Amino acid sequence: MSALISPPAPGGAGHLVGRLLRSRLAAALATPHGVDRYLERFNPMWAAHEVRARVVSVHRETSGTDSAPVATLTLQPTSTWRGHRAGQHVLVGVELPGPEGRGKRHTRAFSISSAASAPGEQFTLTIRAHDEGQVSSYLVREAQPGTLLHLSQAQGEFTLVESPATPTISRLLFITGGSGITPAMSMVRTLLRDGYDGHAGRRVTFLHFARSPEDQIFADELAEIAAADNGVDVHLRYADQLFSEFELRRLVPDYRDTDTWLCGPAGLVELVKDAYTDPESSGGELSPRLRMEFFKPAVARAAAPGGEIEGEVSFTRSGATTAATGASLLEQAEELGLKPEFGCRMGICFSCTRTKSAGTVRNVLTGEESSLPDEEIRICVTAAAGDCHIDL
Question: Is the omega angle on the peptide bond into residue 32 within 30 degrees of 0, that is, cis?
Fold first, then answer.
C-alpha cells in the first residue's frame, strides 16, 4: 500500500492497488465508512479518493503590524491530488477544538500561491490571519511541519489563459490588493518558470496595493522580479496611494482592451470595475477583458435570495427539530447533539449522505436548490432553504 503515497508508475503494482481501492467492490466492502476511513487509520497520507496534505514548512511572510500576520505553508499532498492551474484555489479543512473537547472540522477556501503543479506535487498556500477567521488564524499561528490538512481538488476559473507557448502578443495586467496578490503571484511564477519572455511584446504589468511596506507579501521576490530584465513591470502602492484610473491609464494606456486579472478587497474591486466600464455604452458595459476573483468562505451559510431563511429542520429518526439558520445540515445536527457520520466535510467523500424525505434544501457550494422528495443529499454541503425533513 505504500505505493499510494506517491504517484504510481503506469502499469505497476501501485497502479493496480490504486485501481482496486477505487473499485466498487472495495467501496462495498468498506460500507458504510468508505475505503479512505480505513486507509487513514494506517497512514493519513494514504488515500483512494480524498485529498489530504501534510505541512512541510511554514514561512512567515510578514509580522503583521495590524495583528494580521501572513505565512506561506508548503504542502505535500496525497497522490490523489490532481494538480492545479495557476490562479485556482482549494478548500482546506482543519480539525479545531469544539465543545467538551471534541474536534470539529472547519473548511475555508484559500488561493494557491505557487506555480501550477502536476499531480502529487508540492504546492503552497499564502494565508493572512484574521482574528475573526478561525481557520486562517490556526494555519498562520499554530500550523507546524507535520500538521495534517484535508483538501478538495483545485477549483476555480480565475486562471491564466496565456503561456510561454501561446502564440500571441497579448499584454497581461494584474491588479491586486492585500492578500488578493496570491493568485496573481501563482500566475506570474508560472509564466517565469515556464520561460516567459516579455521582450516578445507580451509585457506583464503588476499593480499591487498594500497597507504598508511592512505588510507587503512576497516583498523580496517582487523586488527581484522588478529588478530582473524579464518584461515584468512591478508597481507597489502603499497607505494613501489609492487606485486611480488616471494612473492606470498612464501605466497601461489601452487597459480596457488588455487581459486583466483583478483580486482584492471590495473597495478596490469597485474602483477598478468603474474604470473598466465603458462610459460611452448605453448600459455601462463592463470590459470583457476584466476577470475578477471574489473570496467568500466556500462552505458558507446559505441565504434565501432576497431574504432570511425561514423554516424548521426535522431530523425524523431522532425526533430532534431546530429552526433553519442557513448553516449546513451537518452543523445543525451537531448543534443538537447528534453525531452523524461524516468524512471530508467538503462534499467529496459522500460519507455524510442522508435521505431528505421532504422539503427544500440548497447546496451551499453551488447555490442550487432542490425540493425533490426522498432525495439523497450530502448534509455537510447542504443547508435548509425552508422546512425540511432529514432521515437522521
Answer: yes
- The residue-averaged pLDDT of 245-252 equals 95
Residue 78 and residue 111 in contact, taking contact as beta carbons nearer than 8 Å: no
Confidence (pLDDT) at 34:
59
Pairing outcome for strands 232-238 and 204-210: parallel
DSSP letter (8 states) at residue 242: -
Amino acid at 127: I
Query: Could you give the angle at which helices 181-193 and 219-227 cross, rounded to 10 degrees?
Result: 40
Longest CA pairwise span in the chain (Å): 69
Rg of the Cα atoms in the chain: 23
Q: In whole angstroms, how far apart are CA 228 and each of 91, 223, 225, 310, 319?
A: 34, 9, 5, 58, 67
Amino acid of residue 200: A
Could you give the CA distance from residue 355 to residue 353 in angstroms, rounded to a whole number? 7
Question: What percent of the chain is modeled with pLDDT above 90?
Answer: 37
Which of 25-29, 37-41, 66-70, 81-85 comes out lowest in average pLDDT?
Answer: 25-29
